Amino acid sequence: MNNAFVSLSLLSTAIFSGATFAQCNADFTSIYTIQGTAKSSALQGQQLSTRGVVTAQIYLGSKAAGITLRAIEQGNAQASASLFIADTNAATAYQPGQLLQISGIVTELHSQTSLIDISDITVCDTGLSVTAREVQLPLTSMNEWEKLEGELIQFSQTLTVNDTYDLGRYGEVILADKRLMVATEIMQPGKNAAALTEQQRLHTVVVDDGLYQQNPDPLQFGGKTLTAENTLRVGDTVQNVQGVVVQDDRGYRVVPTRTPVYIASNPRPENPAAKPAKALRIASFNVLNFFNGTDQTPSFPTRRGADTLAEFERQQAKTVTALAALDADVIGLLEVENNGYGAKSALASLTTALNKVATKPYRFIITSEQPGNDVIKVALLYRPATVGVEGKAAMLFNKPFDWGSRPPLAQSFRHLASNELVTVSINHFKSKGSCPKDRSTKNADQHDGQGCWNALRTTSAQALSDWLKTQPTGVKTNKQIILGDLNAYRMEDPVQALRDENWQYLHNKDTEQYSFVYRGRSGSLDHALASPELAKQLKTLQHWTINADEPTALDYNLEFKSNDQQQQLYAPNPYRSSDHDPLIATFEF
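The chain above was modelled as a monomer; its predicted structure follows.
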């Protein structure tokens, strides 16, 4: 039996035998009975009386405020011993350690078994010991959360931040006992990968800020305020987590009853090391819907990116800072607005802004045809001071690049320091979202961990490899590199299809690689694969972790932020300039 239950069980013997219970000798229904072992109570709608020790006051100051009671008698170990009392007056009138007998109506309040419409509360005793129930991740079953509903729990283990996506909107952080990787980042797709994805749920817990409000201001974590300089990153660690397990329509979470201690275990990375003078550096960066809206009236809101000119200027400033710090000779860009190459285009705007701060100016490759019909395109920047353009800019528009996967762009460059010819291909395959309506098609989710459109992405990889073998730029070279957002994790079919064609996967063997965080899992959607001849010359490969680990609240957007937060959460630095991390490959010949 859990220590918390032992201590309270022993207390009950003395309490029931004392005169204190003279005023609490009425019949009551045990909390265990109210909770039951099903997901909802069998006693819903019934008016009844129950008894328990106050363990916590939660959501104080909100319309959802209440207290939690824990039974002092022993009961069914498969049922929760605690119950939420939804009453704003009780939330402030009663303290942890008080033994109460309460009458009310049983209901499922946002999926949590609760007592509402409180009609009578009697204080039976005070000063009782309240001990949090010890819980350790991973759980043995997701059903454990139902048994913990309403319980005061604590984690003695150090936990790791795995996701901060909802920190800004809801004050929530996903924690786990370790950093969780996307299953298909570390193992082959299939039943085992799907099983690992399900099993990883046992390793996570959502910790709430206890405010019961959207867009909290200020944004607090561990007693600190989130700002552009004071961040909370995925990979940071957390201690002293104690709180009440609450269930709502979005799942289970822990509402802290004491302040968690957040430790900056994953500090922000510095700028990439300066490129050696005679090296060739090639990078790719998904710039997250960089739109300036010049081909529409009015220009804002854009179709995908900034909603206002002010947002665009904030986005551009962060993006430029990140691009300049890459110190790359060639940069492949993804998710640039497909509005041409003219002076008012998004690509021209970005390049002009970049050249105001870059140590060596950039130009962009211009294709002879429009880069597909999608609203976004891929693009290439290069530094004429270090590389020269050779051959033609080539794009592939045939299937499967006529829809879904964006047409790839290839351009050959001569590295001026070594005179080597290198062909760079920048790519953006179809995402896993917007699944086909026909679930019988091969592009539907096969439940193997690869999501939707895997067949299209795999066909795209095969077609890309075949195309590059034809030397589409008109320049013959055995040094080629495939870069970009393939929307596939490392062990998935599209990446494997390229490796099967002898493309060498470039990675840093000394570090765990990831470029993206989604729903509390980390993995690489952005990849670099090179021909064997070029792969031999690789000096370093780096995912510059400036974005995926950072809270979305620190991006350029203005919505859902107070006037103060619009200033405090923003800085024209590279952190959270996008949702993807840049990829940097440095070669020495």
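The chain has three domains: 3-131, 134-263, 280-587.
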